[in-house]
Amino acid sequence: MNDQEPRWLSSIEQRAWRAHLAVHKLLDHRLDRELQPFGLSVNDYEILVNLSEIPGHRMRMSDLADATIQSRSRLSHQISRMEAAGLVARETCPDDRRGTFAVLTEHGWATIQKVAPHHVAGVRRHFIDLLTDDQLIELEAAYAPVVDHLKSIR
């Protein structure tokens, strides 16, 4: 156990941290609400995007869990819901009986094509268009070491 005093956040650190939390929560909530009329959540959309962007529109479940930063158990439950909606299907891996693919269905492909323009418009309206190009470059640069660090300790 560490007996040292905690390194409390300075005023600027506290404001930056709270701004980050507020942006993350508010933006995620807003984008989720805008996907609801399409019967999707932000998590559903992220899975559809991942599957739509790779050749064959299929990914091993373990790779999809890693790509979407979800536990395998949570992803399995979500894929079950998406299967029931006809968006994805599961297929066994021919070279590994224990492995399973998540596969984008025709309905899933049509859904992502229909929803993507609306989602991108929301991302622009609520985030991208509120910042200058210089701010976007600074934001990416500021987040890069945090992302790299967190990926390295996963």
SS-derived structural category: mainly alpha
Number of helices: 6
Strand order in the largest sheet: 1-3-2
User: What's the gyration radius in Å?
Assistant: 19 Å
Order of helices and strands: HHEHHEEHH
Shape: globular
User: Which strand-content bin applies to the residues?
Assistant: 5-15%
Main attributes?
3 strands; three-stranded antiparallel beta sheet; single chain; mainly alpha; 154 residues; 6 helices; 12% strand
Topology at a glance:
Layout: H1 11-35, H2 42-52, E1 58-60, H3 61-67, H4 72-84, E2 88-93, E3 96-104, H5 106-126, H6 133-152
Short description:
The protein has helices spanning 11-35, 42-52, 61-67, 72-84, 106-126, 133-152; strands at 58-60, 88-93, 96-104. It is mostly helical and 154 residues long. A hairpin with a 2-residue loop joins strand 2 (88-93) and strand 3.
